[in-house]
Amino acid sequence: MTWIPLHLHTHYSLLDGLSKPSQVADRCAELGYGACAMTDHGTISGAVSFVRAMREKKIKPILGCEFYLSHHAATTKEKTNRTLSHLVVLAKNKKGWDSLVTLVSRSNENDVFYFKPRIDLDILEQGNPDKNLISFSGHLGSDLANVLFTDWKKAYNSSTVEEAQKLLKHNWLEQASNLAEKYQHIFHKGNFFIEIQLIDQDNSPVSKLVAECLRLVSERSGIPSVATSDSHYPRREDAADQRYYYVLP
């Protein structure tokens, strides 16, 4: 099985990612990866550094962004519309890169920027006219994971799988499948995948439940799944530094 990091943050994800693109490239070369994606939060500022670092190691760079997604119209600047979810988007080709640039630029315009650069589903669809973007979402904090629960914040803080399971909606499979199909319509069939992520299952029991649910969503909807790791640093020993960096005031 060939593994490619498709959900990865560099230090361009402010106060979240730890690694320089060159450090990511070095680690990918050590592990024998043939390609790697960069999906920083709300920005593509690291694109040039990332491409140069990857090409130096003869690794294919995949450019993307993890967008902040507004639940309602992004132009609504109210406290009730400040909570954001996440959505990973990758450029499929040069036209996809152009669309990615357009969307990131749009997310920073005055009428939608609200504490963070953000977009909504309408902006996303309008910014992807040629369907040259690829997307996946299912990790904790995404709409596809949140829709499973009656109270997703409480579910994510559950100490056991059983505790989180009690918070599942009675029709979670139907709601999640419908939402996945909506995303597939925006990106076009073959360009949207259901994200399965288990990297935090030992520390976050609910992630295992979400993964199990989303596998069933994939089976029901016929939308393929993809495994990701949501990488924030290249080596295990970097974990302590990343956590300290993340909680800095």
Task: Name its key features.
single chain; 249 residues; TIM Barrel; six-stranded mixed beta sheet; globular; 10 helices; alpha/beta; 6 strands
Q: Can you put this structure into words, describing what you see?
A:
- The longest helix has 17 residues, at 205-221.
- The protein has two domains: 1-137 and 230-249, TIM Barrel; 140-229, no CATH class.
- α1 packs parallel to α2 and α8 packs across α9 (205-221).
- A six-stranded mixed beta sheet has the order 1-2-3-4-5-6.
- It is built from ten helices and six strands.
- α9 links the parallel β5 (192-197) and β6.
- The termini are far apart.
- The chain is of the alpha/beta class.
Radius of gyration: 18 Å
CATH architecture of the largest domain: Alpha-Beta Barrel
Q: How many β-strand runs?
A: 6
Q: For the record, what CATH class of the largest domain applies?
A: Alpha Beta
The SSE order reads HEHEEHHEHHHHEHEH
CATH superfamily of the largest domain: Metal-dependent hydrolases
Major β-sheet, in short? 6 strands, mixed
Helix content: 25-40%
Instruction: Quickly count the domains.
Output: 2
Strand residue content? 15-25%
Q: Say what the CATH topology of the largest domain is.
A: TIM Barrel
Structural class: alpha/beta
Low-confidence runs:
none
The main sheet orders its strands as: 1-2-3-4-5-6
- Mean pLDDT across all amino acids: 93
The count of helical stretches stands at 10
Assign an overall shape: globular
First-to-last CA distance: 41 Å
